[in-house]
Structures are given as structure tokens and as C-alpha cells.
Amino acid sequence: MFGAELRRRRQEARMSLADLSGVTHYSKGYLSKLETGAKPPTSEIAVICDNALDAGGALRALAPSRTPSGDPAPKVPSHSREVWILRMEADGSTEFSGVDRRTALSAGAASLVTAAAGPFPAAPASPETLGWFREQFAALRALGQRTAPRGVLPLAVAQANALRQLAAGTSGRSAEEALGLAARFAEYAGWMAQEAGDDSAALWWTDTAATMAAAAGDREMCAYAHVRRALVAMYAHDGARTIGLAERVRSEPGASARVLGLAAKREAQGHALVGDLVSSERALERARELLPVPKGAPSPHVLGSSHVADPVGVARGWCLVDLGRFEEGARVLDEEVARLPGSAVRARTRFGVRRALAHALAGEVDHACALTGELLDGVAASGSATVTADLRRLSQALTRYHGHGAVRDLSPRLVAALHRP
Asked: Helices 365-382 and 345-361: crossing angle, nearest 10°?
């Protein structure tokens, strides 16, 4: 069905296979196999052909989605469990389990990531103690820019659990502040779990953060949880679900201007995934109104990224790539990556890979290879599953030019980066 529609639209546009090959940077032989059905279309080629033939999303809609819709099933036990245990395997993988206090003690679980799991009641949360935890949260986010998520995740879990226990031994406003801080650590644990490649754990930690935030009276965090869930859906390439979750924020009573702006940004990325340029641009306009570029560096305690000064700018470049507007997306990302601070190591790697991908898809092979070569050490250090997913997509884009000298030279390092344990 895709092949027949591709041929019909190509012929209506009075383009030969050679013409379409020159625009899309795919070979005539490959395009011919798409038209005859000998080769199935990928979502990537569907976007490229859709834009080349001005099909308005018709070709994109006929291609299979990258991944099935729906959230992964949570594999972490219910919130009613008293102790959170993070088991770390020899290969570095992690898995959470929840046990009651007696079982944890009998199994020696206090030696694992089970802060405050002992039988003694936690001391009340003093202002000085809470101030120390706030400093630790800022330090943890800074560490997360430079350290693999599997190393940061246990620290976030331990702090969240310790604060949860402090809240249980405190009353009044101090208890709410402790539980609210626990929610921030839990939300960050969700991000680190996603970065480590475990979406089900990411969603569980997001739900846990929302539950604790609600108990602390923090409605802003409850609203932001939808933005985090939308991010998981976006990286699963589920545009419709990304949009739905982002739109849900508007009905949340505690949504601040910042959270509404972050939700609009995520909504724009969802519209880009389904090929809706107009809706994506409108959402980005709303995000820009709600998220003006700050004069100084964002506070380390803000919801959302604290290392990207202009999240709307980088999101626009990201959207343009998903919309198939590769040259324009590359130009925007060139500007935005140059503006990222040197301390934002993970962010520079993430958007740098997306920038290289944009140049590769635009047919700028030498430049894409040069950018990629500069990033590979950072990709290895980041240990990021989401960055690796874009690197894999970049590798596939460069494979089309396997005979190109720069691609041949880069290939061994790129393959090693993709297969590094």
C-alpha cells in the first residue's frame, strides 16, 4: 500500500526515480523496491518521502510505527511496601523490589540501598537537615550530567527513602517539606531509570513521586508527573500518547507557568512525531510565551532541565528533525548546541547526537561524521539509553553512505560505541 501510494505521488509530481533519489539521498534501487513492495518502508524513509513529495503526512501514515503504543508494565511492587531495595547485578543492571521491614532486616537488606530501613525511628527533620538535602539534590543533578545513570540512580533512591522516613518522624510543615523533597529525588530517580534503559521503573518512580508530592500538598509536582510520563512516550515514538499526556497538564489545578510551558514543549514534540507541523509550531509558540529565556543560569531546583538555558530552542530543532525538515533542524541545533554551557555534559551529548543526525539526514555526510567523531567519547561516558537510541538512528542514516571515506573511517568507533556493554 505504501509503495503504490509512493509511486502515484511521485508520478503526479512528475519526478523520476532519479529525481526522487537526488532529493531523498536514497538510491534509485532502494526506492524502486519500496514502490514494488520488495522492501518495507521505515518510519524514517516515510517522513523523507512525505516531505519530498509534499504528501501532507499521507505517506508517513502508511508506514509502521517504530514501537507499539502504551506504557510498559510497571515491574516494581506497590507503594504499600515499606522498604525500597535496589538490587545491582554483576553486569551493572538494576532491579527494584519492595519488602516489609522485618524481611529486609532478616535478609540484611540494610546493607543495600535501603536508607532508614532499621528498627529505630528517624529523627525529626530540622531546617538544617532539610537544607542539607536540598544541597544534595543540586549536587546530584550536577553529578548526573557527568556520571552514568546507573551510578547516580542508587544515590537518588537512598535520598528519597531517607527523606520519606524523616517525614514519617516529623509533623506539620517540616513533614510536608521532607516529603516534597523526597518526591523530587524520586522524580529524578525516574529520569535516571529511563536513562539507564528501564522505562517501567522510570514510570514507577514517577508515580511514586506524584503520590508523595500529593501527600505533601505539592500540586505542581503532581502536574509535572504528566510531563515526565509524556517524555517516556516520546522516546517510545508514540506521538499520540505524548500529546495526550502533555495536554492533560492543562487540567491540573497546580500546574505553574513553567510546568505548562514544559508540557507545551512536549506536546510540540508529540505533534512532530505524527507529522503535524502546524500544531507543533503552535505548541512551541505557547511554550515560548510560558518559558522565556532566563537572563542567568536556571536554578538547580527547577522542575525540568536545569542545564539547558533555552529548552524551547533545542525542542524546536528536535521537532524539525522529526518532521523531516532536516536542513532547518540542523541549523537550529547548530545554534542551540553552541549555547549550551560546558557544565551541561549530558545535554551537550544528547543534543549533539541529534544535531549530527540532522546533518546526516540532510546529506551532509562529512560534517555529520566529524560531529559524531567528537561525540563518541561523551556517548560512552554518558551511559544513556536515550542518547544511544539516537546514535543508533544516526548509524543507520550513515550506513546509506557506507562507501564514503569519512563513514568508513568512523565506522569502527561507531560500532564499538553502539555495542559497548
From this structure: 150
What radius of gyration do the chain's Cα atoms show? Answer: 23
- C-alpha 312/C-alpha 289 separation (Å) is 10
Closest Cα to residue 384, out of 224, 219, 192, 243? 192
Residue 5, CB half-sphere, CA atoms under 13 Å: how many? 17
The single-letter code of the amino acid at 320 is: L
Question: DSSP string spanning 153-218?
Answer: HHHHHHHHHHHHHHHHT--HHHHHHHHHHHHHHHHHHHHHHHHTT-HHHHHHHHHHHHHHHHHTT-
Count of CB atoms situated within 10 Å of the CB of 235: 18
Alpha-carbon span 410 to 223, nearest angstrom: 44
Q: pTM surpassing 0.90?
A: no
Q: What are phi and psi of 133, to 5 degrees?
A: -65, -35
What CA–CA distance (Å, rounded) separates 386 from 18?
35
Q: 94-99 and 83-88 as β-strands: parallel, antiparallel, unpaired?
A: antiparallel
Helix (H) or strand (E) holding 83: strand 83-88
Q: 257: pLDDT confidence band, cut at 50, 70 and 90?
A: very high
The CA distance from 66 to 263, in Å, is: 23
pLDDT tens digit string along 311-360? Answer: 899 999 999 999 989 999 999 999 999 988 887 888 899 999 999 999 99
In the block, cell 533512591 appears at 157
Distance CA 177, CA 184 (A): 11
pLDDT at 212: 92
Percent of the chain with pLDDT over 70: 85
**What is the chain's length?**
421
Give, in degrees to the nearest 5, the angle at Cα 98 between 97 and 103.
110
The Cα–Cα gap between 146 and 225 comes to: 24
Which amino acid, residue 395?
A: S
- Would residue 237 be called left, alpha or beta, if left means φ above 0 and alpha means ψ between -120 and 50 degrees? left
